[in-house]
Every structure is written in structure tokens, then in C-alpha cells.
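R.M. (postdoc): so does anyone remember the format we settled on? I'll just put the C-alpha cells first.
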């Protein structure tokens, strides 16, 4: 075969011996002769440049390959089927700018070697077994199904976006088999119009404005992270699971913020992954993440949230593998290793007895009994324990022995508060059929009256103190201000009328904890004056206790008291509190900040932290407080978990 001629001007044309017929003089070509004529230094420099060019070409090839891989994945997502008949949504309020294209900020590109969060928080978990990988693949398929069809499915089932409200209609839908995808609620409630944004009153609009301001700061500076640090325009991580975003999902739905909800939903679908090597607190992650996902599922009908909730619930289950069945405080959701805090083998009583609403509901929705059985086993064991005082429980419980520790100390504040709340709310959730829960709750209320109630001077404010080995302390945490709302809720569901009387008296006290402070904001802990002394206020504050964390307990109880009595003074009190939040905690660049000194209106000393519960609870309860519609999340249809996430009552009365 004759040799293939080279095209004129090609590479072989550089050789003077080349001829069109393929023959030619042998010998070195022109480039080689020139190379031999170069000095050693010139040849060294040339080789160096050649190596640099080769490395650059290799890096460019890898970069282009990665880019096309990303483009391929985005293209595949773009070709997913969209719902044929998406739900009709009202015109939303104007949203803040896209977090990645905010005016004055350059687009945020991922950086390979820099993170502002603490190190090693989101390390990749060790590879699981084949079964875990199959479960992850099944979850991703379910997400695709939910993303493609959640709107049409919800609309077909009577679920639609109607702005700022949810009203349950009667009519149960039987649960499908566990293997079916998508899964729907055991008793799917159709959501109908309650109030469009146009019908929001002025006070509700003020709450929406506050939420949008807080959300704008989170979107700009902390998107996808746990909590906003509004002063430094950065973020802090606790679990690395987008805590604020998940906590705020149902608030956005209730407030009618369509665009913000859709954007958050997209993040949950594409970014929220639980297979990571990180310890989470069982209690906090249950009430905020599991509760938030379950509530978002019930209000929106979007199966994505239930899929995520089931995955997360499974990853919390190792916490219950203790000798006593009393769960550990922490569990690694990537490795499945659970453990108590580093300083003790105890868990707090509130932690282990305030996860039942969420785990019971997860079992009801999925048909998997293990969640309910594990949580209710804790309730049964705590019920049978010795060491109580007329229904009051100590603060700590040992995970090895299953017994109370630190006996003789009783409080309704931190480490014990929501134990009492969940006794009543489980009874309500289950259709008022579990008599043991009711008996424990009624006994505890009697114990509070007998051992912890006192009156202050000079205004005779009724407050709940603490008991330490028989010695009474006039100390009351702001956390205790959940109690007026809980007592009022019980009275609404048929418990003695004297519970409502106590609720109203305690509500006055919680309001005075705000009213008597110079900023109009309550301290974290108050001490009450027991002696009639001139020029001394009822509410006293120690230097270490004068901070405010944007907590929700007082406005939570104001919501219950107004909803169940119709007395508008409770709305007025809530309006004063919102005004104080806007005056002393609002950060101009976006977000709200906890403050260190509620007694100094000139220098409240912001602490550069916006807790997730400010969006998940405080603003939600304020919005509901200012509503005059008793069917907006009716208390005969929903029960709120301790993070203000509404869950359905199983057999509405």
C-alpha cells in the first residue's frame, strides 16, 4: 500500500526531504536540528514549559469532565415530569433576593478548602452495607416521584394552597400498604381556604413582615446552615442539617409565603441528606427536624417530607438501645452509635419524655410500629418509677438503671418542663383514650398547686417556683410560661375549670415578666419578691439571667388564652411583645438577635444569634394569636408539639 501523503502545510511539510509520492531523503527533520542547536539552559527551560503545559491540559480535561457531569445531572432533573395540573396559588408577597445573587454580594461559588462552620461537622459517614445503599436509592427515587407529582397529587386529594390557613374537613383516607410509593397520611385531611394574604389583618401583616426580614437574613448569610448569626452576617452549625429552614417550613405555609416555601422545599429535596457522621441530640432533633418534617407533610401533602421524616426517624432509633430502654441523649445519624453526654450517664427527663408525639405519629403514617413502641416504652417505665412527689418528677434519669437521679429537686423549668406538656398532649393526640396519661397529668397539676405555687409582692402575682430538698425557691424560668397555655388547653378538652383559672393567673405573671423590664422583653430567669418592701418590683433579675433568647413560651400561652377565652387583652399583650422584638432585637441587614441585657434599652448587647425557634415558634404563635379565625389550625383538630409543629389529632372530637 503506498504511503498516505501528508496535506500541504501539515506537520510533515516541516521536513525538507518530504515529497508528494512519499519518498524523500532520510535524516533529521528541521525541528530536531534546531533543538540540537539550542544551549543546555534553553533546552531545560523548554522542557519545563512543556511539562507545565501538559499538567495544565490534564487539569483542564478533568475540570471540563466534572462540569459536563454536573450539567448532565441538572439536565436529567430538568427533564423530570412536571405535574399536569399544579395547584393554584395566590400571588405571594415579594420575596427577598435569591441568596446567591443578592445585591452587593458576589455569587457564592463552592470553595474546596474553606468552610466557616466548625471542622469535621459534616464528614462523610463510612460506607454502609448493601441494604443501606439500596434504602438510599429507594429514597432518592421517592424524592423524584414527590418532586414531579406532589402538586397534582395534593390537588387530586383535595389539598391546595390557599394562602395563610388550613382547615380540616372530615373524611378519612385509609392508609395504603407500606410498600406503596408515594405514601399518604393515615387520615389525610383536605385543606381548604381560610384566609388569603389579602384578608390578613394589620397585626398579622406585621408578623409576616418580621418573618420575611428574619428569613432574608437567613437566606443571605446562612442558607442551608443551622442558625443565622445576624451581626457578623454568618452562620453557626449545631447538627449541620439546615435547622432553621426545616423549623420554619410549616410557618411559611401558614403565613401564605408560597415562594419561600417552594424554595425551601427544593433545598430539602436536593440538599438535605442524613447520612453524615454527626451527633445529634435526640430531643432537639426530634422536636425540630422530625416534628418539622411531619408537620410540613400534613399541611402540604408533599410525600417528600414524609420520606425524609422516616429516614431520619430510622437513624434516631439506635438511641433506644440501652439496658433500661431509656434512650441516650445523643446519636450519630451516620454511624448509628448512640451515647450519653460526656459528663454523665444520665438523660434529662424532659428529653426522653418529649419525643412521643412525633414517634407515635411517624408510626401511624408509615405503618412501622417500632417508633411508637420505643417511645411508649419510655412513658410506661417513667410512669412506674419511684422518686416522684405528688406527680412531680426529678430532672434526671439514668440510662443504665432506668431510675431517677438527683432526687428531691423539682422544677417546671429546664430539663423537666415538657414532660408535663406531653402527658396532656399525648392524651389529646390519641383521642382521649389513654387514661394513664391523663391520670399522671392531673396528679402533676395537683402537685404543682401543692408544692410549687406562691404569690409575689406587692402585686400578688401567682408564680411557679422550685423545690430543692424541701426548700422553696422563688425562681421561675421563662420556659415555665408554657404552663398557662397547657392548662388552658386541658380545660378546653374537658378538664376542671380551675385549670383555666390558674392558667389566667399565670398568664398575668408571664406578661409582667415582660412589662416590668425596661426593654419590654422578659429575662431568661426571674426571681420573685416574697416580701412587702417599698419601691421593689415583683420581678427581680440577677445579672447572669437577664438575657433574652427570642423564646416563644409566653406568646404561645397568649395564643391559647385568646383562642379559648376571646379576651382581646391577650392580643394587645402580644402586640407589645412584637413591638419590643422589633425595637431591640431586629438587625437592619436581616434577622433578629438574642440580647444580653433586657434591663438596658440603650445598650441591650445583642448576642449575634437567631435561634431556629424564633421562626418555628415565636412568629408562628404571634401570627395565630392575631387571627380571629378559630378554625385556623383548630385546637379540636391539631395538637402542637413542643416546637409549635401542628400534628393531627387521631380521632378529632
Amino acid at each position: 500500500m503506498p504511503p498516505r501523503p501528508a496535506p500541504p502545510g501539515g506537520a510533515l511539510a516541516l521536513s525538507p526531504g518530504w515529497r508528494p509520492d512519499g519518498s524523500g531523503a532520510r535524516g533529521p527533520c528541521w525541528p530536531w536540528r534546531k533543538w540540537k542547536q539550542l544551549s543546555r539552559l534553553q533546552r531545560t527551560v523548554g522542557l519545563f514549559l512543556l511539562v507545565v503545559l501538559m499538567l495544565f491540559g490534564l487539569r483542564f480535561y478533568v475540570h471540563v469532565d466534572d462540569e459536563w457531569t454536573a450539567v448532565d445531572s441538572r439536565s436529567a432533573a430538568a427533564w423530570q415530569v412536571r405535574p399536569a395540573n399544579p395547584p393554584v396559588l395566590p400571588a405571594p408577597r415579594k420575596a427577598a433576593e435569591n441568596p446567591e445573587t443578592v445585591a452587593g454580594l458576589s455569587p457564592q461559588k463552592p470553595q474546596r478548602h474553606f468552610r466557616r462552620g466548625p471542622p469535621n461537622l459534616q464528614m462523610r459517614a463510612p460506607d454502609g452495607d448493601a441494604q443501606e445503599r439500596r434504602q438510599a436509592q429507594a429514597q432518592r427515587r421517592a424524592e423524584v416521584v414527590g418532586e414531579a407529582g406532589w402538586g397534582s397529587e395534593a390537588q387530586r386529594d383535595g389539598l391546595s394552597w390557599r394562602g395563610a390557613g388550613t382547615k380540616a374537613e372530615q373524611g378519612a383516607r385509609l392508609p395504603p400498604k407500606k410498600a406503596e410509593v408515594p405514601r399518604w397520611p393515615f387520615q389525610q385531611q383536605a385543606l381548604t381556604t381560610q384566609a388569603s394574604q389579602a384578608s390578613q389583618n394589620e397585626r398579622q401583616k406585621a408578623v409576616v413582615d418580621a418573618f420575611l426580614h428574619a428569613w432574608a437574613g437567613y437566606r443571605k448569610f446562612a442558607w442551608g446552615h443551622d442558625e443565622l448569626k445576624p451581626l457578623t452576617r454568618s452562620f453557626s452549625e449545631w447538627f449541620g442539617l439546615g435547622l432553621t429552614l426545616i423549623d420554619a417550613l410549616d410557618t411559611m405555609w401558614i403565613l401564605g409565603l408560597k415562594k419561600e416555601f417552594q424554595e425551601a422545599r427544593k433545598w430539602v429535596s436536593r440538599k438535605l441528606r442524613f447520612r453524615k457522621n454527626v451527633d445529634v441530640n435526640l430531643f432537639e432533633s426530634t422536636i425540630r427536624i422530625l416534628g418539622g418534617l411531619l408537620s410540613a407533610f400534613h399541611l402540604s401533602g408533599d410525600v417528600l417530607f414524609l420520606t425524609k421524616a422516616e429516614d431520619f426517624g430510622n437513624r434516631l432509633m439506635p438511641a433506644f438501645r440501652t439496658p433500661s430502654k431509656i434512650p441516650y441523649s445523643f446519636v450519630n445519624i451516620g454511624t448509628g452509635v448512640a451515647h450519653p453526654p460526656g459528663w454523665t450517664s444520665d438523660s434529662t427527663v424532659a428529653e426522653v419524655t418529649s419525643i412521643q408525639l412525633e414517634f407515635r405519629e411517624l408510626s401511624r403514617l408509615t405503618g412501622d410500629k417500632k417508633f411508637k413502641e420505643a417511645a411508649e416504652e419510655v412513658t410506661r417505665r417513667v410512669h412506674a418509677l419511684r422518686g416522684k412527689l405528688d406527680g412531680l418528677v426529678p430532672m434526671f434519669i439514668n440510662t443504665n438503671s432506668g431510675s431517677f437521679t438527683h432526687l428531691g429537686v423539682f422544677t417546671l423549668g429546664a430539663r423537666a418542663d415538657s414532660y408535663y406538656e406531653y402527658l396532656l398532649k399525648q392524651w389529646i393526640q390519641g383521642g382521649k383514650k389513654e387514661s394513664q396519661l391523663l391520670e399522671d397529668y392531673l396528679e402533676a397539676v395537683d402537685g404543682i398547686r401543692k408544692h410549687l405555687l406562691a404569690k409575689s409582692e406587692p402585686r400578688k402575682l401567682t408564680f411557679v417556683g422550685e423545690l430543692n430538698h424541701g426548700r422553696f425557691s422563688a425562681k421561675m424560668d421563662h420556659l415555665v410560661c408554657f404552663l398557662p397555655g397547657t392548662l388552658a388547653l386541658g380545660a378546653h378538652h374537658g378538664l376542671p375549670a380551675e385549670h383555666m383559672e390558674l392558667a389566667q393567673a399565670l398568664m398575668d405573671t408571664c406578661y409582667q415578666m415582660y412589662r416590668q423590664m425596661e426593654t419590654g422583653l422578659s429575662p431568661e430567669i426571674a426571681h420573685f419578691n416574697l416580701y412587702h418592701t417599698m419601691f421593689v418590683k415583683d420581678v427581680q433579675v440577677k445579672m447572669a439571667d437577664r438575657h433574652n433568647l427570642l423564646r416563644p413560651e409566653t406568646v404561645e400561652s397568649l395564643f391559647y388564652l385568646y383562642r379559648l377565652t376571646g379576651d382581646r387583652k391577650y392580643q394587645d399583650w402580644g402586640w407589645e411583645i412584637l413591638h419590643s422584638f422589633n425595637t431591640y432585637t431586629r438587625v437592619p441587614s436581616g434577622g433578629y438577635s438574642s440580647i444580653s441585657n433586657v434591663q438596658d434599652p440603650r445598650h441591650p448587647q445583642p448576642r449575634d444569634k437567631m435561634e431556629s425557634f424564633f421562626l418555628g415558634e415565636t412568629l408562628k404563635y404571634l401570627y395565630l394569636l392575631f387571627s380571629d379565625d378559630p378554625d385556623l389550625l383548630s385546637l379540636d383538630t391539631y395538637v402542637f408539639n413542643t416546637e409549635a409543629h401542628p400534628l393531627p389529632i387521631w380521632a378529632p372530637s
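R.M.: ...and that's the designed sequence above, right after the C-alpha cells. Also worth knowing: The CA atoms of residues 316 and 331 lie 6 Å apart. Residues 1-30, 60-128, 144-195 have pLDDT under 50 and may be disordered.
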